[in-house]
Design goal:
Length: 449
């Protein structure tokens, strides 16, 4: 590479970094808190919608305990010591505490101080948006116009309190993508839920985010309004909702043969299917989350055997097979200035040999990280795409003394929102990371006399 080429390359990279930085700096300090109405004002008329919203993660985007720990214990200290990631101190708030960022209140007060940052993604923020800048929604590049005009997906509504305008933008998936796509300082999409949807069958069919996360139901959008057949429910249920997680991945397992003798080798195949989500699973905060397949067999006398998955041999597979000896997250020690920090168990308490459906986020030194802002590269993407089925095999050498009778083989799909080793180290409450069984299936074969 010649000198002019090197200069051009450096300028392009610097420009990409500035593009990331400019998003936060472009809206920081542009609107005071009082430019936006409080959710309580909206709730006085929109009762059902308000009650739904306050139970959803939208309203808890700043007060949620794991987000508080991650921001104040990791992101802010890291931003203040490493210029490469300096923007995250302000930038995290673009989606988690947008009113605080626009008010120039950075970092915002802790949630315990009960400031207006606690309103999170508030009613008035969303209903005063007019569109987004550029070709792709990401990093809160929405355009907002606070005031008496409120925007939504329905025509012909009147309110005694504000002007109501129909907005085509609110009907689109791009409306969601401005926060559910995120680029970091390495110009990587570390959150890409909207892009995953767009590339998948749901996006191509025009089934938008709102179809699943804001389904329509008969009712009133406001207490003084008339009954409507299709009021959008403000549920926003996703990875923190047990009902949404239940069955999100289907699993079926079968043996190669229904009869075997002690000492035989038997092969079992588990097929896992993302038949429910319109994006990859896991999605969103992929760096935190783990989805895994756990297979056990129980013989006629009740002895339980754990079966490790067969390896497929692809590059980067080591991150997709659980290992209790593998370490990661060493950057946490560097951020918190812990001398001789060796790291934490990469897979937490996931049993050795279980298949993990994940994409590893790797820091600049190639170590797995939960710091999406410090991610310089990705491992192999082994998540399940929409409508994707994937077969996993388990080759089992049966014990020579195995008792005759039925053997029950059970395949389970488990999920956690945060790897347990990280959660325990950072003292995250257990309800935030305890494993959730989202599906299971059992089959049998017989050991002959």
């Amino acid at each position: 590479m010649g000198k002019p080429d090197r200069i051009f390359f450096i300028l392009v990279c610097f420009g990409l970094f500035l593009a990331h930085v400019s998003v936060a700096s472009g809206i920081e300090g542009t609107h005071p808190y009082d430019a936006f109405e409080r959710p309580q004002a909206c709730a006085s008329c929109h009762i059902d919608i308000a009650r739904q919203h306050e139970q959803a993660m939208m309203s808890q985007s700043y007060t949620h305990i794991w987000d508080e720990i991650e921001y104040f214990e990791l992101a802010v200290p890291h931003a203040r010591k490493d210029p490469k990631v300096a923007e995250v101190e302000a930038g995290c708030n673009g989606c988690h505490a947008p009113l605080a960022l626009m008010a120039g209140d950075v970092p915002p007060p802790r949630p315990s101080e009960n400031s207006r940052a606690n309103e999170g993604v508030s009613c008035d923020l969303c209903h005063t948006m007019t569109g987004f800048e550029g070709d792709t929604p990401f990093n809160f590049n929405w355009i907002v116009d606070p005031g008496k005009t409120k925007r939504g997906p329905r025509e012909g509504l009147e309110s005694p309190h504000h002007v109501t305008v129909m907005s085509e933008y609110h009907k689109t998936a791009e409306f969601c993508g401005a926060c559910h796509n995120e680029k970091n300082p390495w110009n990587l999409f570390v959150k890409s839920t909207h892009l995953e949807w767009k590339e998948g069958p749901h996006g191509k069919a025009g089934i938008v985010c709102q179809s699943c996360h804001m389904p329509p139901a008969a009712g009133r959008s406001a207490r003084m309004g008339s009954s409507l057949p299709d009021v959008r429910q403000h549920l926003f249920h996703g990875a923190h909702d047990p009902g949404k997680l239940a069955g999100v991945i289907e699993v079926r397992i079968h043996p190669e043969t229904r009869e075997a003798e002690p000492g035989d080798t038997i092969k079992l195949t588990a097929v896992c299917v993302n038949a429910k989500a319109g994006h990859k699973v896991p999605t969103g905060s992929v760096e935190d989350r783990a989805l895994w397949l756990h297979v056990t067999a129980t013989d006629a006398e009740g002895t339980v055997y754990h079966l490790p998955v067969d390896r497929k041999g692809f590059e980067g597979e080591e991150y997709t097979v659980a290992s209790s000896s593998a370490l990661g997250y060493q950057d946490i020690g560097e951020i918190k200035e812990i001398p001789d920090f060796k790291g934490l168990k990469r897979d937490g308490e996931i049993p050795d040999g279980d298949r993990i459906f994940r994409m590893a986020y790797l820091d600049p030194k190639g170590r797995i990280t939960i710091s999406q802002w410090y991610t310089a590269s990705f491992g192999y993407d082994y998540r399940l795409a929409p409508l994707e089925a994937r077969a996993e095999t388990f080759t089992w050498n049966l014990p020579d003394e195995m008792p005759a009778g039925p053997v029950v083989v059970t395949a389970e799909i488990w999920y956690t929102r945060l790897v347990s080793s990280v959660a325990q180290f950072l003292k995250v409450p257990e309800e935030e990371w305890e494993p959730i069984r989202i599906n299971s299936h059992a089959t049998t074969f017989t050991i002959l006399d």
